[in-house]
# Entry
Amino acid sequence: MMNSEGLRRFPGSLDGGAASTGDLKRSDASDETRVDTSIPLADYLDRCERAYLTQVLEERRGRVLETARVAGINRRTLLRKMNKHQLDKSDYR
# Structure
């Protein structure tokens, strides 16, 4: 259920109304939320991290400091992650 600001809220949680079973049905997952459950979570997270870093490095043309800022991580942390995923900043210039 959405409030007037367009924010999602749990049905019946604050207004005293009871949530019906229809309100609690599981919605279909969009393409964006579908995941590969055939691999361990650690492997899936590594793939996601690598894809994210690759995209930000492309957008920032390999600029490490800008990439770290956008990712919200320290420059040294980014460099460690780039090393882990064998990403070279010069490949994105």
Observations:
- Residues 41-92 form one domain.
- Confidence is low (pLDDT under 50) at residues 9-14.
